[in-house]
């Protein structure tokens, strides 16, 4: 079995350090019914046995976490609470404390054996993403368009995307900008744009 994934361009400050992030695709969720059928075939447990055991385990897991305990499920891993709140200093003791502490999330740390088995995973890339580049400068735009129109009389959106190495969304945004500035003249239709050279 293989794990299918896609590379998605990042944005904001993260984009300068990591231009892409990997996401499983399709990101499906295995249901209890689906997993239960597989377990039924390999054990003596029935679907009702599994559902009852899972419900009891869920109640006990929540009770232990609410008591502030870390929960260890052998063969799976450890569950624990992550806490958040506003850090304040006590006015008299000057000791730090959390104002209105609450649960931020439930952490899960898998067993080393589980992580070891995940090393056997095989991966396949489903897409060939383009970098999420910033819009080119005016001088770069003029240089690229001059070179492009010296080679061919017309340009399409796909030509602009390839020459500027932008995402499809940014290519359309750039085309609208250049068309409004008169640097590109659309001689095609509204839905199928074909550009001639404008005033560069």
Can you describe this structure in just a few lines?
The protein has 200 residues and is of the alpha+beta class. The chain has 7 helices and 9 strands. A hairpin with a 3-residue loop joins β3 and β4.
Task: Write the topology of this structure.
Elements lengths: L1 E8 L4 H4 L2 E5 L7 H11 L4 H20 L4 E3 L3 E13 L6 E15 L1 H7 L3 E4 L12 H14 L3 E2 H8 L3 H13 L3 E3 L7 E4 L3
Description:
Pfam families: HU-HIG. Keywords: DNA-binding. It comes from Alloprevotella tannerae ATCC 51259. By secondary structure, the protein is α+β, with helices and mostly antiparallel strands. It has 2 domains: 105 residues, HU Protein, Chain A (Irregular); 60 residues, F-112 protein-like (Arc Repressor Mutant, subunit A, Orthogonal Bundle), CATH 1.10.10.1470. It has a 3-stranded mixed beta sheet, with no helix packed on it. Strands 3-4-5 form a 3-stranded antiparallel beta sheet. Helix 6 crosses helix 7. The chain is elongated. The two termini are 54 Å apart. The model has no long low-confidence stretch (mean pLDDT 88).
The CATH class label of the largest domain is Few Secondary Structures
State the oligomer. single chain
Structural class: alpha+beta
Query: Approximately how much beta-strand content do the residues carry?
Result: 25-35%
On the 0-100 scale, what is the average pLDDT?
88
Question: Sheet with the most strands?
Answer: 3 strands, mixed
Radius of gyration: 28 Å
Distance between the termini: 54 Å
Shape: elongated
GO molecular function: DNA binding
Keywords: DNA-binding
InterPro entries: HU-HIG, IHF-like_DNA-bd_dom_sf
Domain HU: 1-123
